[in-house]
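Chain A, query sequence.
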Amino acid sequence: MLNSPTEEIKSRLDIVNVIGSYIKLQKTGANYRAICPFHSEKSPSFFVSPSKQIWHCFGSCGIGGDIFGFVMKIEGVEFKDALKILADKAGVELKKEDPKISTKRQKTYDICEFACSFFEKQMESNAGIEVKKYLNQRGVKEETIKEWRLGYSPDSWRALSDYLIGKGYKREEIEQSGLALISEKNKFYDRFRGRIMFPVFDINSRVIGFGGRVFKDKEGLGAKYINTPSTIIYDKSQTLYGINNAGIEMRKKDSCILVEGYMDAIMAFQSGFKNVVAVSGTALTPLQLKIIKRYTENLHTAFDMDNAGNSATKRGIGLAQSLGFNIKIILMKEGFDPADILTKDKKEWEEMVKGAKSIKDFYFETALSSFDKNTLEGKKSISKEILPVIKRIPNKVEQELWLKDLSGLLEVRIESLMEELLKINEELDFSLEKEEDKKDNNEKEKKTKKDILEEYLICLFLRKPEMLSIVKDEDFLFLTPKTSDILKILKEDPKKINMLENQNITALLIKSEFEEINEGIDREIEKCFGEIKKDFYKKELQNITLRIKKEEENKNEDKIEELKNDFNNFLKIFNQL
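Chain A, predicted structure.
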């Protein structure tokens, strides 16, 4: 019998399915691996063990745990919130929590959910019926309106606030959820009024914020689109509109189509392009790209092609390049967005997606359309446009191919282009990955040789615990207390390894399964113990040398002689190892 909701949730959910709903996992033997979602890296160091139902990163962040730890980390939530998320996934009913002790984060989720239901209900009002007609004219079907939970905020100062206050929430809680404002004269009023409402969801389809589009132009309603400000659960720089619907499809198709607006994502989804997400209300950020990379490394961008859109596309390409994406650009007609094209002709959009340009073709074509390659100034401008892009290409073979084509296009020697390439400093935006890598390496260097050897020794004994019978009591003296404790428990009964969860054994349990062993385990254990002992005696010899120098300063001949004898004895043992 299961004694707690936590145990019941764990028994119903498989860690591979849970983590696989957030990041792209690759099977490797009996386990799975992935690029770690918690730090920047190029080679996968994040491992999941289905047999032990645990995960761990062997990269610089070095974190690990069970399904609860993963959800807490990736969602940025407390344990109570992770419990609720996983309970919903598992179909486990939790006891109703007293609203008074509900977390601030959970209250914000609840307020946003109530607000979303309120906006949906308003679609039945006279103004809401007009909104539906407008959306239908734009090509949005009834079932799509319901699926994306589109709504309407009444053109009233406090309609939503009064409704939420009636539900028992305080004004400051409504304001902190991004749904209300307080004026300079201390008047409290709704942020969204007279607007078509687009709820924004997280990966688990929880409402975290809203985008509101003016329905009828009216003085005082402000910008055409406004969005929820940053709250405890919403940050537009790390939010992608439609990710809750697109995640599985992105992984299935191994590609993501990135658009700019809510309607673009909705119309694409309705037309069968379900691997589409939108940036909505922000320029593309590294955090958004890292979310996409959990699902796929193949990215298609479909941004407006006016001057601002062109610049946004190029900036997005640079960021995506720095994160190792394979990028293609869907070239949009000036003045049209994906929603316009999909409403008019779905087949035209299909052809545009199929004909997406490689970044090489995109840059070469846009540079040629902007500058005259037959003039000196034109050649310089084209090279100035393209060389920084080449600089960001990590693969040297691909770099050379770009340079050869640019050399032929401009009719200049490739050596000249390479000289110019060396002068280019990569922009700050695109050096983020390298700075993090540098930080990662510095963190890795903090581990001592002894730490690494002892970890490896534990992994070897985890693979073959019966070998612990050859370890003598005096051998434990060469190990740190933590390693000694682990090995003593293993020696007593290998099944007791579960007792060590709080001693960060999770990492070693997984690592033992992936550790490459060059020789037989017996021989590796012998070699590893030998290195640990060598390290011990080497440090002892260094300490004795320092003590001899100190006693020589004090001219303590008896102590010097004693220390020299110790030194010779230790040196003899060291040389025999």
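Confidence is low (pLDDT under 50) at residues 426-445. The CA atoms of residues 175 and 460 lie 56 Å apart.
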